Amino acid sequence: MTDNLVQLLPDAIANQIAAGEVIQRPASVVKELVENAVDAGADEINLIIKDAGKTLIQVIDNGCGMSETDARMSLERHATSKLRTAEDLFTLHTMGFRGEALASIVAIAQVEMKTRRAPDELGTRLVVEASEVITQEPAAAPPGTSIAVRNLFYNVPARRNFLKSDSVELRHIREEYIRIALAHPSVRFELHVNDKLDLSLTAGNLRQRIIAVFGKKYRDLLVPIEESTDVLSIGGYVGKPEAARKSKVGQFFFINDRYIRSSYLHHAVTMAYDELLSKDSYPFYVIFLEIDPARIDVNVHPTKQEIKFEDERLIYNYLKATIRHGLGRASIMPTIDFES
Ligand code: ADP
Ligand code: MG
């Protein structure tokens, strides 16, 4: 008889492997950290990027902050304050819930966290490298949380070498940042790239946020849409036909404030425009769908951009009708076929 061979992996290795799923590139870190800041109730979130996130990604928020114990605990795998029971999965309103992001990030980078809850006199400073806590100490800090992620993938050379050029990585970062900024117009966002202010978004409503992100010309190009039933509500803006582009920029779906991709729902939108658009152009839209969380499964993919939902067909038809109605009200199309 030979000795048994099966052993549990050490945490640092398990976390590094898990990180491969959650963190593909600097933009994934941006998404996770900015979503955490939103979940923490921040109304000001600053993002600081150096070298397209390869040397520094820092997110500073004025949210709820963490106690010293929670700050240390937040770095553990499956550690979350957002989910307690299996039932909670069906009523979730936070962006995160898996408790994997921080554990993944600290496994593959050099991380410095400073955090303080408003009522506490002192905050906590933590320095972590490759899942190992180097420093944990009380420290003066403004209320909220700052997390600086340096030298992403420094200990995973294969991953680091796989990163694309700075311009490509920065484009991915901007995309993630803009998606979250569109979903949270009441939060003030600032993006600094290589020590320069790149994008500053003041708090406002969705219309103002869209114009701040995409430019003043959208002032005259946005058509509001709004309909609701007891299981589904739809809101947001679609572009007038003149806002359509030949390239695929400017299509955003959010389900319960979470950005998703859906070629199925995209099809519903293009069908709503029907002959208003030429075949090779894409309509502009920023559409929010609110659905009872019990009717959708956000658990499908670790980065959670695809979700499954019940009643797909119904949502398709309702979305199409809502857009037709909106375009009709804006006198862009007759409303007579709304009921069809
Ligand atoms: P998840 O977001 O899925 O819970 P994370 O690994 O992203 O998992 O974060 C773990 C926990 O750390 C969160 O549940 C939250 O309690 C805490 N946390 C993370 N970031 C922040 C932040 N910016 N402000 C306050 N708490 C935070
Ligand atoms: Mg999170």
Automatic annotation (TrEMBL):
GO annotation, biological process: mismatch repair
Record flagged with keyword tRNA-binding: no
GO cellular component: mismatch repair complex
Gene Ontology MF: a single term: ATP-dependent DNA damage sensor activity
Keywords: Coiled coil, DNA damage, DNA repair
Positions of the DNA mismatch repair protein S5 domain: 210-328
UniProt keyword DNA damage present: yes
Membership in a protein family: Belongs to the DNA mismatch repair MutL/HexB family.
Function, as annotated: This protein is involved in the repair of mismatches in DNA. It is required for dam-dependent methyl-directed DNA mismatch repair. May act as a 'molecular matchmaker', a protein that promotes the formation of a stable complex between two or more DNA-binding proteins in an ATP-dependent manner without itself being part of a final effector complex.
Protein name, entry field: DNA mismatch repair protein MutL
Originating gene: mutL
